[in-house]
User: Fold these one by one.
Assistant:
Number 1:
Amino acid sequence: MPRSRAAHDLIFQHILDTYATETNKVVSVWGAFADRDLSFKLHEKSSRVLDLMKHPLSERRFFAEFLGVPEVEATAVLPAELSVLNMRERMVELAQPRLAFLAARDSAWWLTIVPFFDAQRARVWIFWRRVLYTAHHRTPLTVYLRLLDKSVPATYGPTADVTWTGADPTLGVEAADGRASLSTPVALTLAAGLPYSVVCKLQQHLHAFVWPTISLSWSAKPRCFNSLA
């Protein structure tokens, strides 16, 4: 994973980490489809699976037009053959040079106000709009997978198909309370008298260990990409 030039500000490295992991989540969801599913849609007015996998086109526009990131020509964004495998590979190929470019930007660059459609916004604001839009495009595809009776990959937490030791979904009041839902090792640490802020950090690290390794390079694991180092 590239390190941000502005990482000393303690807030910009997470932009690189977030973009890498959000890209991983997209290609993991895409990988649950087969080529025969590309024409599937919920309604005559709904987008097809393939339409939603053309997401790199809007990403290219955001990064090139609004953030000023060097990008390939728009005609070169999509692969010549629109298969699930090719679309996943292309998504990753386009993401990798963006990470390197963004890592070289300083805090002044991120906070600069630039045109965004008919408004003016800071580049960091535009980046987060991009992340939200990516999640917006990914979400209907998880619904499509369920309706096609396919396994839904984990993105922000476990699904009915994918879980792991330490998974802690908030499904009720007890979990929403936070402390009551801590895993046993963390609960014991809390009982030992450590500050709650320290316990929360420990819980985050424990969850990191049980998550599958994700990356922007192909992995032997099905439907998964391994993290950039």
Number 2:
Amino acid sequence: MFTLYLLGIDSCLSMLDSAKMGVMDFKWGQKLFGGSYELCNTALFVLGLLIAIPCNFKFGLILWDRWDFYINNWGLLVIAFLEVLSISYFYKREDRVNKAGSTTCLIVDAGLILSMVISAFVFVYSDLIMDSSNVYIRVLI
């Protein structure tokens, strides 16, 4: 049991150290904390403590369940559409227009935006019915 405790403390300190280095590598991090690693460690510790407080109560399970639901549904959808948009629209757009033509690119871009709107419509107007063991999504169209 004590070994598991030490492993948890060790992994917590390594995550705190990597977050500290990630913050302090930026100019805004050095400006915000005045170059003090101790102050940055303290701020990250307090932030982690505030995030973890709801987990100590019954509300924490509900909070993380909702967070997981929205990240798995909305987050994945938004990230996928942003990746497709960035690859198909912004990356080498001039080459694409020169090879395929502006009309074709306009049709593809309109289809991409239309698919985003339709997907958002389905998610917004869907009804979440939670059972004790299952989660069903009924589309209200």
Number 3:
Amino acid sequence: MPKQPASGPSGPVAPSEPPAAVPPHVAETVETIAKLHARSEREVPRQQRHVEAFTAHLGHPTAVWTIAAAVGFWLLANLALPSVGLRSPDPPPFQWLQTLCSVGALLMATMVLAAQNGQRRAAERHSQLDLHINLLSEQNQFAVAMDRYNESASIAQSNGETLECAKAMVTALKTVVSAEGTAPKAALEHYTVAGKTGTAQKV
């Protein structure tokens, strides 16, 4: 029993056509680019990833408000504790806080420099990756152009051979109605005649 086409609210629904196949050179280029990207990501050290992740969080506005809140809480706590009869762990001029801020600033500056160096190396890797991609694309385009050129040359050669064969056939058919041919009576004055006779009788 033949399969009936599917129907929808507005009438029969045409079957969906299968997606067009990706040309081999395009698939090869995409696969090579994916491999180059994966290799570029693998070349990044783990410590560099941690530093970049930390500096990314540090540059977020939430981190700024968190640091400001921690410093304010530390100042208020050390100023308020003596008023309730408790000993302040870091009384004014807040030497512990100053030392902590100095060490934190040193670490942050070092991490920022490390992140910048990592970004510079990543930019160099991306430039090399772009160069590889461009060279690969040009190589594939050249291969496609050569394939098309060879195909065109083959077709042109085939057409040339066909034309020579046709010319030879026309010459042979003209000979049929000549004085040396098998049908000289079929020749017409002032006209070019070509013909083909049977093998059993002559005209």
